[in-house]
Write a structure and sequence with these properties.
Number of strands: 11
CATH class: Alpha Beta
Largest sheet: 8 strands, antiparallel, barrel
Shape: globular
Helix content: 10-25%
CATH architecture: 2-Layer Sandwich
Number of domains: 1
Radius of gyration: 16 Å
CATH topology: Alpha-Beta Plaits
C-alpha cells in the first residue's frame, strides 16, 4: 500500500462551492480506477474544525504503484494541473491499514495527523507504534478505516482515518469528505505491512 496526497491551499475568500461542484461533476471518474484502494475527496474550510485555510486536499491509498503512476502520468492529475497548477504530491509507504468499526458507513470527515520520526529512536519501534495506533484508531466508535504510512525522505509519519460522524475520535487536521472513490478498497492489505 502507498499513500499519496496533494494540497491546494486557496485564498481566504475563495468560493469553496467551486470545489464542491468540481467534485460533484468529476469525482466519479476514479470510481473504477485500477490499482486504487481509496481516494477521499477532502476539503478544509477556514474557520471550520479549527482550519486556518481553505484547502482541497484529496488523500489516496493505492494498491499498486502502476495505478498511482497511471494517475500521475496517464491523465488523472492533469485536470488539477490545468486548472490550479501542478501541485506538490506527497508520497508515503504504507505501514498498516485497518477497516474500522463503522466500515460500512459513508465517511463524513477525515483526520490526518503528521509527525516527524525523531532522531535517535529505533526505527522498528516507531513503526510498531504506528501500527498499534492504526489499530487503535480503527477500533474507535465511528471509524470507517485507518492507515499509517511513512515518508522516509522527510522521515515523517502520517496517520489517516475516515469517520462516519462529524466529531472524530482522533487528533489532527479535520477535513470534510465530499466523495469517496473506493474501487479496490477490499484489496487493501490489512494489518502490518512488513
Amino acid at each position: 500500500m502507498h499513500a499519496m496526497q496533494y494540497e491546494l491551499t486557496l485564498p481566504a475568500d475563495y468560493d469553496m462551492g467551486i470545489v464542491r461542484d468540481r467534485v460533484a461533476r468529476r469525482g466519479h471518474l476514479l470510481d473504477a480506477w485500477e490499482g486504487l484502494g481509496v481516494k477521499a475527496y477532502l476539503v478544509r474550510e477556514r474557520g471550520v474544525h479549527g482550519s486556518p485555510v481553505n484547502q482541497y486536499a484529496p488523500f489516496y491509498l493505492w494498491n499498486t504503484v502502476e495505478g498511482a503512476n497511471g494517475f500521475l502520468w496517464g491523465g488523472g492529475l492533469q485536470g488539477i494541473a490545468d486548472d490550479f497548477g501542478r501541485p506538490r504530491v506527497r508520497w508515503w509507504t504504507g505501514l498498516a491499514y485497518e477497516e474500522g468499526t463503522a466500515a460500512g458507513a459513508a465517511p463524513v470527515v477525515a483526520v490526518r495527523r503528521r509527525r516527524p520520526v525523531p532522531d535517535g529512536v529505533r526505527l522498528g519501534e516507531v513503526a510498531e507504534e504506528a501500527v498499534r495506533e492504526c489499530g487503535r484508531l480503527a477500533g474507535e466508535d465511528g471509524a470507517v478505516l485507518a492507515a499509517a504510512a511513512v515518508d522516509t525522505g522527510a522521515w515523517e509519519l502520517v496517520h489517516f482515518s475516515l469517520w462516519g460522524h462529524d466529531a472524530p475520535g482522533a487528533d489532527g487536521e479535520v477535513f470534510r469528505v465530499l466523495h469517496l472513490s473506493a474501487p479496490e478498497r477490499d484489496r487493501l492489505p490489512r494489518g502490518r505491512r512488513w
